[in-house]
Amino acid sequence: MFPRAIKRLFHQASLGDQSYRFMFEPGPADEVVAIDCETTGLNVRTDDIITIAAIRIRGNRILTSERFEAAVRPGADMGAEGIKVHRLREADVAQSPLITKVLPGLLHFIGGRPLVGYFVDFDIAMINKYVLPFIEIELPNRRIEVSKLYYERKYGDAPANTVVDLSFAAMLRDLGIPLLAQHDAFNDALMTAMMYVVLRDKKQRGVRIARARSHAAVFNPTGA
Q1: What does the angle CA 56 – CA 5 – CA 121 come to, to the nearest 5 degrees?
Q2: 4-205 has which fold?
Q3: In whole angstroms, how far apart are CA 205 and each of 25, 193, 199?
């Protein structure tokens, strides 16, 4: 696997549409974008995006007035389980644009800013599925995984046998962030943005998250 810096140079050289060269330019100082995709399933190859949301963060300010939201007409069958999770039927997105119509607005919105997310590699993989044939590169943006920031603040100095819980609910609870209706792209992006801002502040102040002793089985999205 190529180091990310080398891969970035390769993508810059192979960019198909030169009007998107701004993707390689640094974004405004101290700005990142929280992003979330809701999809028909968890298989990047066979599933599709149905909603996508992105929110800009400047320093410790979450700019909800500067956001991108779009519903997308998927090519894949949404399935009964997906409908239950997202509370969207195929008829609800039947008149929505195809992802190819949504991508230009999304790419101009995020620009070269780092992308913040929970399980962000999945969201970016889903977006790259469409970006690659669109402009012949993958997103070059730096990625910031909030569960890694949380791990550092809570478990970075923990003994080797410490039980690790990196579930979304546990992170919200520890950080004192309200649980909004989940499986909604904007709400999930907003909660992720709030987690990022709180964790960033804790890191700047050198504050750790207290650990309680527990031997219960927990969810760890990293697979560790």
Answers
A1: 50
A2: Nucleotidyltransferase; domain 5 (3.30.420)
A3: 30, 19, 10
As given in the structure block, the two tokens for residue 121 are 């590699």
Chain position carrying tokens 């519903």: 71
Looking up tokens 């995709």 gives 37
Q: Dump pLDDT digits (tens) for 11-30.
A: 666 676 788 889 998 889 99
- Residue type for position 95: Q
Strand partners, 32: 57
Give the DSSP H or E segment for 143.
Answer: strand 143-145
Q: Which two tokens stand for residue 23?
A: 């993707």
Write the DSSP symbol of residue 98: P
User: What's the length of the chain?
Assistant: 224
Q: What is the pTM of this model?
A: 0.83
